[in-house]
Design a protein that fits this description.
two-stranded antiparallel ribbon; 5 strands; 3-stranded antiparallel beta sheet; globular; binds zinc ion; alpha+beta; 1 helix; 27% strand; 75 residues
Length: 75
């Protein structure tokens, strides 16, 4: 059974494995590919990825870093 998680931006609920999990540690955002990192996670759906910077989802964090991760996620 797969648990459902809500996208932080559009608030649509999807199975956890269809969302991208990001964690914040010491004000640095990282993409949690395994979805198992021990930290507070934020889930974003693929459709909303381009909006992450604009919506200031990770307002205290390095936006450039997120953009680089986004590229990694897509390719
Ligand atoms: Zn979304």
């Amino acid at each position: 059974m797969i648990s459902m998680r809500m996208c932080k931006i559009c608030r649509k609920r999807s199975p956890k494995n269809e969302l991208l999990r990001f964690i914040i540690k010491d004000n640095v955002v990282s993409f949690d590919k395994s979805q198992k990192a021990q930290a507070r996670g934020t889930y974003i759906c693929e459709d909303c990825l381009p909006l992450v910077s604009k919506r200031k989802v990770f307002k205290n964090c390095d936006i450039k870093q997120i953009t680089e991760m986004t590229v990694k996620v897509e390719y």
